[in-house]
Amino acid sequence: MAKVQVLDTSGNKVKEIDAPKEVSSYEIKEHLIYEAAVNYMANQRAGTASTKTRGEVRGGGKKPWRQKGTGRARAGSTRSPLWRSGGTTHGPKMRDYSFRMPKKARRNALRSVLSSKFAEKQVLILNAFDLKEPKTKDASRVMAALNLDNALIVDSHENKNLFLSFRNIPGFKAVDAKQVNIHDVLNHKWLVFTEKAFTTFMERLK
């Protein structure tokens, strides 16, 4: 097992704890990381873009002019894609972009990302991160003391002051330990856990 330092909010070492070997020393599988990231982003897509075909556009029931003898090109409807206000040819329609990825594959992708973070020493654990009131200024002060400019903060949703304090700080995001996803981990340089959240998250990946 790898040893990880536990710090206080001033950056002072409090103690060391063990990080499970199956996470901290897991083989980095780049293909799984890629697939899991694509899966997450695809599942977030609304897929609500939609255009109307000539059969869905209102009007156009009457033939604009007779077929022959006018000298103009023949036309059967004013809602032809060739006309202004006509239908759209091959335009987007509502669709579901999501797809299913095996649970074990998603878990192993998270293990791979965590393993790379451990290897690069970009994982910090705090003994606690309690704020007396929801203040962005107090949260920023702690991040400055830890010398962090971009981080994903992981704790429990019960710590409401923490989540409210980080809402408006660019480069930082607070998430519940049970809702950590690969997209957020990849989008932030540092991973900051509270000790309790770290234990919960490691249990999830075992």
Query: Strands of the biggest beta sheet: in what spatial order?
Result: 2-1-3-6-4-5
Characterize the biggest β-sheet: 6 strands, mixed
* CATH secondary-structure class of the largest domain: Alpha Beta
The outline comes out as elongated
Question: How are the SSEs ordered, and which strands pair?
Answer:
Blueprint: E1 2-7, E2 13-19, H1 21-24, H2 30-44, H3 103-119, E3 123-126, H4 136-145, E4 151-155, H5 160-165, E5 172-176, H6 182-186, E6 190-194, H7 195-205
Parallel strand pairs: 1-3, 3-6, 4-5, 4-6
Antiparallel strand pairs: 1-2
Helix pairs in contact: 2-3
In words, what does this structure look like?
This protein is α/β, with parallel strands linked by helices and 206 residues long. It folds into 2 domains: 2-45 and 98-205, Ribosomal protein L4/L1 (Ribosomal Protein L4, Chain: A, 3-Layer(aba) Sandwich), CATH 3.40.1370.10; 47-96, no CATH class. The chain is 33% helix and 16% strand. It is built from 7 helices and 6 strands, in the order ββαααβαβαβαβα. The chain has a 6-stranded mixed sheet with strand order 2-1-3-6-4-5. α2 packs across α3. The longest helix is centred in the middle third of the chain and has 17 residues, at 103-119. The chain is elongated, with a radius of gyration of 27 Å. The two termini are 13 Å apart.
